[in-house]
Amino acid sequence: MDPELIDDCVHCGFCLPSCPTYVLWGEEMDSPRGRIHLMKQHVEGTPLTDEMAGHFDACLGCMACVTACPSGVRYDRLIEQTRAEVEREHVREPADRALRELVFQLFPYPRRLRAMRLPLRLGAGLRRRLAPRLERINPSLAAMADLAPEPAGRVRLPRRVAAVGRRRAVVGMLTGCVQGAFFPQVNAATARVLAMEGCEVVIPPAQGCCGALPLHSGRPEQAVRFARRTVAAFERAGVDTVVVNAAGCGSTMKDYAEVFDGIGDGEWAGRARAVRTVDLAEYLAELGPAARRHPLPLKVAYHDACHLAHAQGVRSQPRELLAAVPGLELREIAESSICCGSAGTYNLFRPEAARELGDRKAERVLATGADLLVSANPGCTMQIASAIRRSGAAPIPVAHTAQVLDASLRGLGKIA
Length: 416
Ligand code: SF4
Ligand code: SF4
Hints:
Blueprint: H1 3-7, H2 20-25, H3 32-43, H4 50-57, H5 64-68, H6 75-89, H7 94-106, H8 110-115, H9 117-120, H10 124-137, H11 139-147, E1 160-161, E2 169-173, H12 178-182, H13 184-196, E3 199-202, H14 212-215, H15 220-237, E4 241-244, H16 247-254, H17 256-262, H18 266-274, E5 276-279, H19 280-287, E6 298-303, H20 306-312, H21 316-323, E7 328-331, H22 346-349, H23 351-367, E8 372-375, H24 378-391, E9 398-399, H25 401-409
Helix pairs in contact: 10-11, 13-25, 16-20, 17-18, 19-21, 23-24
This protein binds iron/sulfur cluster (2 copies).
GO molecular function, one term: 4 iron, 4 sulfur cluster binding
Keywords: 4Fe-4S, Electron transport, Iron, Iron-sulfur, Metal-binding, Repeat, Transport
Organism: Planomonospora venezuelensis
């Protein structure tokens, strides 16, 4: 852990009300300031205790504290370094180790994830009926059974999608692991929207995982391997801009150069800087509209994914894009800056806390009276949909910004 980054914290406490774990439990050591204090103790020689590791594990990595901090403390870097230290030094219980191994051998591998679609065809109803029994055996397995969505039909994306009308740009597109396996319809909508807005879209078939999951979980070596492969895939594709539609992936790719700099790899830092990563909403707002918007009579609540709002600062662009659809009424969700509890793998490793946050978010989403929830991160989509089901309220469909724009640009009148 970098002592200079730790010393940037002046202990003012401005970040406390924005921290979901502090909001839930009111414990100083489960606040950003408390965790930074623990990091300092460790750097100054206190060995990493189980209790300390517990407070670090309980952090969602949502980066709400980075947004809130007036002193510019790089909590994102600090927690990344801390997690790597925890993985090196902390001996986990065998069940925890086994679960982590399962998750890290599955989620960053698109092929393995796609193979999961087969057992998922077991039916969401049956899986969810089994969840209470699994809960007694292992709450994390119950969370997995409950969260996984109904598998979507197979979507084959071409390597290249031609621009509709005058070509305004050529961009690469990241398909992602969870997005590609569970929400291929979002990728298809993304490619169509970009094409209808005048972009030629290049989709390299062998892109793999961007490294978000290992990077945010204290596995930097695996993350760096994946980052190199991703940069190389888009270099080979001949693009200098990559559009990303999953918040967690986008924020990781935007950090590549800094990650390579951190390990003293100047060559790859330079290569990463040469391929610009941009979020879909950010890119479309920058490009400006070319295609005609058709009406969509919908009341839409927009959910801020933490890795989009806090980590990338993308808040206004998706709202502006949605609000520009004729007939669409945008509604704000109270406490929008507080995490829904998904946070990558948090809802698998810390299912109880994630559930509390999910329930809190579902309540606020339902209070908007919207008939569609829009979320730009697959993890949030699964987490909030599951919490709404649990609430017993009438389900509200969840779509990605890309799907709303796709429906409007194609004049479908409803979300496909
Ligand atoms: S992280 Fe920032 S906001 Fe929080 S206590 Fe430290 S200086 Fe204050
Ligand atoms: S990243 Fe989120 S959960 Fe972790 S300390 Fe910051 S605000 Fe709290």
